[in-house]
UniProtKB/TrEMBL annotation:
PROSITE patterns: AA_TRNA_LIGASE_I
Superkingdom: Bacteria
Domain Methionyl/Leucyl tRNA synthetase: 41-172
Family note: Belongs to the class-I aminoacyl-tRNA synthetase family.
Enzyme Commission number(s) from the entry: 6.1.1.4
Protein name: Leucine--tRNA ligase
Domain Aminoacyl-tRNA synthetase class Ia: 428-602, 628-668
Substrates-to-products reaction catalysed: tRNA(Leu) + L-leucine + ATP = L-leucyl-tRNA(Leu) + AMP + diphosphate
Length: 868
């Protein structure tokens, strides 16, 4: 009999070392036909891994090991998304250099990730703050400039007053900074931009080629790119003392509603708004107030709809006698369309609210056909209808009217030019990459008073970050450095200044997957080596990156193709977005604030039939809150390293895969972890106890048991392919249940040679099949059965080979619960034939002594029970 318990504390590191010494996860850059590039989104080195990391990287590891077993050359690397504000904040708070803080965290997290048993090729490791990496990024920046993919321009930006830096529109959530949660202000600054808008159409069109991406992610990207087809319409300003011979250009996607127009609205930063602000205090105050808000379209759409009457009127293009008032409104976006719209309250709910607020006319222009219509409660008409009160459009459907009015506006003219011109606009704006912070990739630009903007010569790269910076001052430490920014112009040798802005950290993560092929080369990308590996076959990460990171990475891949360094356009062939790990929250109310408790700071007891939580400190009752994403701020965090230390890596791995489909949220449960650990222990006991009897070889198998097992093993394989790991684990439970009885019989020396060999045969297949999920345990079981080599190097079993049809099956016979004999019968024998042949066996006749048995029970052709 073997040892009773499986001890991962004794075995996990043994197998880590064995895999490392064998070098089985190291990938050579060979142009193999069967390649597979699996990649999880790389982590920010915050100091410790969390449960989200564990789930993310275990999913990727299972895929990598599965593909290795199928004889693919697998690239499964790891790096660190290492630049960013948290390091600077730590520097200010703890008086530590960001570089030191970052690399110390990487060291800790690397060890934690290695403890999970990931099949990572650590020789490919790098951090984006490595000088080699950001040197290559600076080279790419200069290549982008050469190919007109970079522009410097003044722009209204989102200013985070806490982080003292600019944020992209995508980094503003509900009007607040995505990291600091500070209310965002608008500022006009000179910024560097990547011209992602040049790729709007192809980024949109190629979404249809991403068949391996979740539909919800593709929809989110389509909406963000936001292609709209409409028409620009010229509205003449009614002349007055201030405005002579001017017009406002309006863009609309609903031209058929023009006869319902009751106001024009322009953006607060429209040229006309700026000019009026110089002479009218009320307009200036309104514009100043609204410009403190975020600049993103989504944020402006959420704001209360407010405006101010400019006192200016325009002539209706199709009825010059009709005067339409011009408002400055906070819901019009200058960087979308022309920065001006006409408002038709009848057909737009936002315009309806605005018209009701400022007592503007609401003109019915459509009659309902079979869709929702406007009513007395102030709801706008939002469906299809027949045009009314719309001159020559009357009687047309709104779809017919849209085309008719555009043709009409293109033919009509004002001052010799058409009133209307069809136009396609995109919501997607150029990507502002300038950040006013230290811990980022320096932008390789010099500002010369004589030559203007000058590129740093490639031979002078990298532009290194200085380490002797002062974080006690507010703002960007690079601005305050006494010498770093002072240089001589490469062209005229005059005194000049370095660019002190650094790149948005999303630049770092937009091309990192390419760097894994040659992580330590001097050139950013070796096309000969990288082209065979792209695109990434399976990318894994959270859906929160659907717009930010994933869209930027798609742009970067196209931009790098444009500069001639890769052939592929799409970076990720398949995308999997895993669910979050969630846990109950526990808190007490202190006024309007919540005081949160860690799970280990509370205990439970039953009160009047209800499960209640109490503080371990003073026994006061604690409110059990909803399930929420694990976060330090709400203290509902479970440390993965504690789980690994207590239960072993495979318990942690199996639990995060087993409790729910991997694309859904996983509810953390200590009971679930315990149950998972007990299941592993059960498998160990069954195999360990029977191992001595399983050292056997034979040519005959129990084909009924083989057939049942093969079907389940095939189901496991199919669920791997679907990434349905929870179902694969359920299949493993099913198979263990089937072979448990034979294993116990083998241990009790109550089985024949055929059963013993069949069970061993199935176990070897099962160990290989379950090894991607619980690799340490699988290696230990493989060794336990006397096999040589590593499970991680075994080929996936060809499961169809064990479903060969045999003519006979062997069934054990029990008499009053005690095994007495075996019988071999045809595979297609029915119960009547089995009973007949059983009773004709001499051993059974001798036991019965001529008596008739009370019962003969045949259990699933697995066993025959005779009751006498």
């Amino acid at each position: 009999m073997g040892k009773k318990k499986y001890s991962p504390q004794e075995t996990d590191y043994k197998w880590h070392n064995a895999w490392h010494e064998a070098g089985i996860f190291k990938t050579e850059n060979q142009n193999k036909q069967k390649k597979y590039f699996v990649l999880e989104m790389f982590p920010y080195p915050s100091g410790n891994i969390h449960m989200g990391h564990l789930r993310n990287y275990v999913i990727g590891d299972v895929i990598a090991r599965f593909m290795m077993a199928h004889d693919y050359s697998v690239l499964h690397p790891m790096g660190w998304d290492a630049f960013g504000m948290p390091a600077e904040n730590a520097a200010r708070e703890h008086n530590i250099n960001p570089k030191k803080w970052t690399y110390e965290n990487i060291k800790v997290m690397r060890k934690q990730l290695q403890s999970i048993g990931l099949s990572i090729d650590w020789s490919k490791e790098f951090a984006t703050c490595d000088v080699d990496y950001y040197h290559c990024q600076q080279l790419l920046f200069l290549d982008f400039m050469k190919h007109n993919l970079v522009v410097r321009k003044n722009a209204k930006v989102n200013w985070d007053p806490v982080e003292q830096t600019v944020l992209a529109n995508e980094q503003v959530i509900n009007g607040r900074g995505w990291r600091s949660d500070a209310l965002i202000e608008q500022r006009d600054l000179s910024q560097w931009f990547f011209k992602i808008s040049d790729f709007s159409q192809e980024l949109l069109e190629s979404i249809e080629t991403l068949s391996g991406w979740p539909e919800k992610v593709k929809v989110m990207q389509k909406k963000w790119i936001g292609r709209s087809e409409g028409i620009e319409i010229r509205w003449e300003i009614v002349p007055n003392a201030i405005d002579q011979d001017e017009e406002i250009l309006v863009y609309t996607t609903r031209p058929e509603t023009i006869f319902g127009a009751s106001f024009i609205a322009i953006a607060v930063d429209h040229p006309l708004s700026k000019r009026l602000s110089c002479s009218k205090t009320d307009i200036k105050n309104f514009c100043d107030q609204e410009q403190k808000r975020g600049t993103s379209l989504s944020e402006l759409e959420k704001n209360e709809k407010k405006g101010i009457n400019t006192g200016i009127y325009v002539k209706h293009p199709l009825n010059p006698q009709l005067r339409i008032p011009v408002y400055i409104a906070n819901f019009v976006f200058m960087n979308y369309g022309t920065g001006a719209i006409f408002g038709c309250p009848f057909a737009d709910q936002r315009d309806m609210y605005f018209a009701q607020k400022y007592d503007l006319p609401i003109i019915p222009i459509m009659e309902n056909t079979n869709t929702k219509n406007s009513d007395d409660k102030g709801k706008a008409f939002i469906g299809n209808g027949i045009m009314i009160n719309s001159s020559f459009l009357d009687g047309m459907t709104n779809t017919e009217a849209s085309q008719a009015i555009m043709l009409h506006l293109e033919k009509q003219s004002i001052k010799g030019s058409p009133i209307g011109k069809r136009k396609v606009y995109f919501r997607l704006r150029d990507w502002g990459i300038s950040r006013q912070r230290y811990w980022g990739c320096p932008i390789p630009i010099i500002h010369c008073p004589k030559c203007g903007v000058v590129e740093v010569p490639k031979q002078d790269l990298p532009v290194r970050l200085p380490e002797d910076v002062d974080f006690t001052l507010s703002g960007n430490p690079l601005d305050h450095h006494p010498t770093w920014k002072k240089v001589f112009c490469p062209k005229c040798k005059a005194k000049a200044l370095r660019e002190t802005d650094t790149m948005d950290t999303f630049v770092d993560s937009s091309w990192y997957y390419m760097r894994y092929i040659t992580p330590h080369a001097q050139e950013p990308i070796n096309q000969e080596l990288i082209d065979p590996w792209l695109p990434v076959d399976q990318y894994i990460g959270g859906i929160e990156h659907a717009i930010l990171h994933l869209l930027y990475a798609r742009f970067f891949c196209r931009a790098i193709k444009k500069i001639g360094r890769v052939k592929t356009e799409e970076p990720f062939k398949r995308l999997f977005t895993q669910g979050m790990v969630v846990h109950e929250t526990y808190y007490q109310l202190e006024g309007i604030k919540k005081k949160y408790f860690k799970p280990e700071e509370i205990f439970f007891k039953n009160v009047d039939g209800k499960n209640c939580a109490f503080s371990i400190y003073d026994n006061s009752e604690v409110i059990i809150g909803p399930l929420e994403k694990m976060s330090k701020s709400k203290k509902n965090v479970i440390d993965p390293t504690q789980i690994i230390t207590s239960y072993g890596a495979d318990t942690a791995r199996l639990f995060v895969l087993s409790d729910s489909p991997p694309d859904r949220d996983l509810i953390w449960s200590n009971q679930g972890v315990n149950a998972t650990h007990q299941f592993i222990q059960k498998m160990w006991r069954l195999i360990d106890n029977a191992k001595d009897e399983l050292q056997i070889s034979s040519t005959k198998k129990d084909m009924l048991l083989i057939g049942q097992s093969t079907k389940i093993l095939k189901n496991i394989e199919e669920n791997y392919q679907k990434l349905s790991f929870n179902k694969a684990i359920a299949n493993i439970h099913e198979l263990i249940n089937i072979i448990s009885t034979p294993l116990v019989e083998i241990y009790e020396k109550n089985s024949n040679e055929i059963t013993r060999f069949t069970v061993r045969y199935i176990l070897e297949k099962l160990i290989i099949v379950m090894s991607p999920m619980i690799p340490h345990f699988a290696e230990e079981c493989w060794q336990l059965l006397g096999n040589t080599g590593l499970v991680a190097q075994q080929k996936w079993p060809e499961l169809y080979c064990i479903t060969e049809v045999k003519s006979d099956i062997t069934i054990p016979i029990q008499v009053n619960g005690k095994k007495r004999a075996y019988i071999t019968v045809p595979m297609n024998a029915d119960d009547a034939l089995i009973k007949k042949n059983t009773l004709n066996l001499n051993i059974i006749k001798n036991i019965l002594q001529g008596e008739k048995p009370k019962k003969i029970i045949i259990v699933s052709r697995r066993i025959i029970n005779i009751v006498i």
